[in-house]
Design goal:
By secondary structure, the protein is of the alpha+beta class. It has 11 helices and 8 strands. The strands form 2 sheets. It has a 5-stranded antiparallel β-sheet with strand order 4-3-2-1-5. Strands 6-8-7 form a 3-stranded antiparallel β-sheet.
Length: about 375
């Protein structure tokens, strides 16, 4: 019986494999129609929302752009008005002495640049936050992250922030400007450019110094207000003081009336009197109030005129070597020593001055 079953199974045909049901089924036309219907219905349901969001974003952008342009133009007109006012003042004689057009122009431009940058940052930053809020984005994590990033950047770039803020306050307070001669501690010279971060100075030797505004702890402006020109005239103590004063008064009066010294002098040249009196010399102090930055040139011209006037009046200017030694002629015999009797060893003076040397002791005779 088992053999019969085995032969029956062997004679039966082998069944063919059934097709797999896991393969990708190609979409039919009905599926495509359903997808299009769903998309159309979704757009129909949400188009008003997206249209409102788009219009709101567009309105925010347009308002921000228009407001930025208006504010920047208003700042530019304000700066131009300041420049025209400065030019009008500079047309007067007093303004020509006190106002530097280039200095005021650069200061106004720097202030305008700072104001325009701050206004643009505030307007565009506010617009960006409003646009993000329109898309229902939670701004709390974003603002927290921005705050942390701002603190990190501010800590890393604290020197840059310090330089920038110092430059802004220097310009707003008008501490110095182009053409001023200043002493900034780390460097000194004439200001050739004022920036928000760096100030450029030209030294006395022609070198250019780049000074960071944050490094300046104190500033000495030598071009504001007025300067003092002082000259010390040293003459012999035997000179007639009335004659010296008369000659100095003539020099001061003549210099005060000539060009261009009458403009550089902001007051009369004063003879202050004797500054010091020594045994062989005395110092007369001459002083004058001048324009800022013109004290050195006035001092040089004053020395030139005083020397020429003293030469004509036969008044000697002394200094360095004592006047008493200049008056007394040198005696050539002072350096020659008188002959000495001690130079001859056989002279009585030499023998008398020679030490006594004890002679040999005579032998004693014993009794």
């Amino acid at each position: 019986m088992s053999l019969t079953v085995l032969s029956a199974l062997a004679a039966a045909p082998t069944p063919s494999p059934s097709p797999s049901t896991t393969g990708r089924v190609a979409p039919t036309l009905q599926d495509a129609q359903e997808s299009a219907t769903n998309a159309a219905s979704w757009v129909e349901e949400n188009w008003s929302t997206w249209l409102a969001i788009g219009l709101r974003v567009l309105l925010i952008v347009v308002i921000a752009a228009v407001l930025r342009v208006v504010v920047r133009r208003a700042i530019t007109k304000l700066i131009d008005r300041m420049n025209r006012t400065v030019q009008a003042v500079d047309g007067t004689s007093l303004g020509g002495l006190l106002v530097n057009v280039e200095r005021r122009r650069q200061r106004s431009q720097a202030i305008g640049s700072v104001l325009r940058s701050v206004a643009s940052f505030l307007i565009m930053g506010t617009a960006a936050l409003m646009i993000l809020g329109t898309f229902a984005i939670n701004l709390a994590p974003l603002l927290a992250s921005a705050g942390v990033a701002g603190v990190a950047i501010g800590f890393g770039a604290r020197n840059l922030v310090t330089d920038f803020l110092s430059g802004v306050f220097m310009i707003l307070e008008d501490q110095y400007g182009v053409g001023d001669t200043i002493d900034a501690g780390v460097a000194s010279g004439e200001v050739i450019e004022v920036g928000l971060r760096v100030t450029k100075l030209r030294g006395d030797g022609g070198e250019i110094w780049y000074v960071r505004n944050g490094e300046v702890k104190r500033i000495g402006n030598l071009s504001q207000g007025w300067a003092t020109a002082g000259v010390d005239v040293t003459v012999r103590a035997s000179e007639d003081l009335d004659q010296v004063q008369s000659v100095l008064n003539n020099v001061a009066e003549a210099m005060s009336k000539e060009e261009p010294w009458n403009e550089r002098l902001w007051g009369p040249i004063e003879i202050l009197g004797l500054d010091s009196v020594l045994l062989d010399s005395m110092v007369v102090r001459v002083s004058a109030k001048t324009m800022p930055g013109k004290a050195l040139s006035v001092e040089r011209e004053l020395r030139w005129r005083i020397k020429r006037a003293f030469d004509e009046a036969d008044i000697r200017i002394v200094g360095g070597v004592a006047a008493a030694h200049e008056e007394e002629p040198l005696d050539p015999s002072e350096s020659v020593a008188a002959p000495s009797a001690h130079a001859n060893p056989t002279s009585p003076q030499s023998l008398a001055a020679a030490p006594i040397v004890p002679g040999p002791t005579p032998p004693s005779t014993a009794k």
